[in-house]
Each structure stands twice: as structure tokens, then as C-alpha cells.
Design goal:
Rossmann fold; alpha/beta; 39% helix
Length: 206
């Protein structure tokens, strides 16, 4: 099984898990894996761990990752323990951003709300990447304001929801918003290609 097949097989478990209605899209999970491989991500912070679809899928395939996240919902906190199994001990869980001990992360995933989003400025590496799952327009606007030199791309899928997903059939899989807070040349090149891909997908997807 290659990494993509491995991550997809783990993701399918979350598609069948209790409380699956808010999990990340398949496209988001696979794109995050691409980002991790491309940019050598070593540590991740996820705002809104939910029932663990992103964390569980990424940790199952990249066991070396240092992974922390925030969650406050009791149902989700219990589900994380069940759904991640042995990988749960690799996870640092905090109730909200202000409780995350000061350190820097290569990749920050935003998939939940937090009243202290401005703390992301202290938590992201100089060449860090912020990925927003779903629409989340207010958070997107704030984050883009915090990093004046950033580059932004909305990466969209040209695939529809799979029959095993908890999402409506016939709808496009949800996309991702990617912010390079202070891009280096490798990130700039990838960002440019991703912008082009999004343009083509918008043009050709039917
Ligand atoms: C979009 S969800 C996060 C999903 C998560 N990143 C995942 O992939 O599983 C955002 C927030 O919704 C809440 N939430 C998610 N699933 C829930 C459920 N089944 N019941 C109640 N609250 C839920 C949690 O507080 C979570 O942080």
C-alpha cells in the first residue's frame, strides 16, 4: 500500500465513525499529505481536532509527526481517544489556543473556531504554512491580515463526494485555503502551480 492508499483507508474509517458529519473532506486530507511530503513538515497544530479525521489519518501515515491540537467538546474529546487508538498518545490536546504552550509549528490547520486566533502569529514558524479547511471566511480574512507578506491560494477539488463519505453525493469535495506566511522560493513555485491548477479546475469542472 502506498502512502496515499494508506491515508485513504484510514480516512474511510472516520467516514463511518459516530459524529462523522463535520469531518474534513477527502480532498483536504490528501492535499495536506501532499503539503507534508513536499515541505518536510515535522510538527502540526490543528485548531478543532473534532473526532480526529485529519489527525488520525495523518498520524497513521506519518508516525514521526509531532501533532498537537485544540478541542473542547466532550463528545469529540472522547471520540479522539477511541478513534486514534494507539496514536492518541502521540497527540497533544489543549482546550483552546491560549492553553497551547509557546513553541513554533511548521503547519497549522484551522478547522474550528477559537476566540484568540491572533495567537497563531506567535505559534507559526517563519516559513510556516496555515491551511484552512472549508470556507471559514472570517478566519481567513483575519489570518491574511496578520501576515502582510503572505501568499494565498484556494485549492479546489475536481472530484465529487465518494459514496463512502458522509457528504451529499453529486457535490464537489470541499477544498482548502492555503496561506504561506512568508514564502521561500520552493513555496512560491508550488503556490504558483496550485493557483494555475485551481484556475483550470474552475474552468473545466462540470
Ligand atoms: C469541522 S469540526 C473539526 C473536524 C476535525 N478537524 C476532523 O477532521 O475530524 C469543528 C468543530 O466542531 C465540533 N464538532 C465536530 N464534530 C462534532 C460532533 N460530532 N459533535 C459535536 N461537535 C462536533 C468540534 O468542537 C470541532 O472542533
Amino acid at each position: 500500500m502506498n502512502k496515499q492508499e494508506q491515508i485513504l483507508s484510514e480516512y474511510k474509517e472516520f467516514c463511518n465513525a459516530e459524529g462523522n458529519q463535520h469531518i474534513a473532506s477527502e480532498y483536504a486530507i490528501l492535499k495536506l499529505q501532499e503539503i507534508i511530503e513536499k515541505f518536510g513538515t515535522e510538527n502540526v497544530l490543528e485548531v478543532g481536532l473534532g473526532i480526529g479525521a485529519i489527525a488520525g489519518s495523518l498520524l497513521s501515515t506519518n508516525s514521526y509527526l509531532e501533532y498537537s491540537g485544540t478541542e473542547h467538546n466532550k463528545f469529540c474529546l472522547d471520540a479522539l481517544k477511541t478513534n486514534l487508538g494507539a496514536d492518541y498518545r502521540k497527540l497533544g490536546v489543549f482546550s483552546k489556543l491560549v492553553k497551547v504552550p509557546q513553541r513554533k509549528f511548521d503547519l497549522i490547520i484551522i478547522d474550528g473556531k477559537d476566540p484568540d486566533l491572533e495567537k497563531i502569529q506567535q505559534l507559526v514558524m517563519d516559513r510556516g504554512i496555515i491551511v484552512i479547511e472549508g470556507d471559514r471566511i472570517p478566519q481567513q480574512e483575519l489570518l491574511r491580515k496578520y501576515f502582510p507578506g503572505h501568499k494565498y491560494v484556494h485549492s479546489i477539488s475536481n472530484k465529487k463526494n465518494a459514496s463512502y463519505s458522509p457528504f451529499p453525493l453529486g457535490h464537489w469535495q470541499g477544498g482548502l485555503k492555503i496561506i504561506f506566511v512568508n514564502p521561500d522560493s520552493k513555496q512560491l513555485l508550488w503556490w504558483g502551480k496550485e493557483k494555475m491548477k485551481t484556475k483550470l479546475k474552475y474552468h473545466f469542472r462540470k
